[in-house]
Write a structure and sequence with these properties.
Length: 103
């Protein structure tokens, strides 16, 4: 799911529970304006996809990095991720709270 800064969903897709988060992101049309930045958690680390998205669509994918990876974020990027990633977590929680747990 892609949401804007206010938490309004812009793009989303449904995937099987067995598929990775990256597979879901690859299914999205990512029709964002050139120069946009998408924020993601550790599950979205895929260097080739990041580079392709930047080169083809002009969209930057900024993801939280695991400590053992070669490419690391700057401290300012980590701060932005820590502050802004809470928006998507809040949206997911709000959506899940509306879905019944049992049928």
């Amino acid at each position: 799911m892609i949401v804007d800064e206010e938490g309004t969903p812009i793009e989303f897709c449904f995937t099987a529970g067995s598929s990775s988060d990256m597979e879901g992101l690859k299914q999205l049309p990512c029709e964002q304006p050139e120069g946009s930045t998408l924020l993601g958690d550790k599950a979205y680390t895929c260097y080739s996809f990041e580079e392709d998205l930047q080169d083809i669509a002009g969209i930057r994918l900024l993801v939280k990095r695991r400590r053992n990876l070669k490419r690391q974020n700057t401290p300012s990027q980590d701060f932005i991720l820590s502050q802004k990633r809470n928006v998507i977590e809040f949206v997911f929680s709000a959506i899940i709270s509306k879905i019944p747990r049992h049928i």
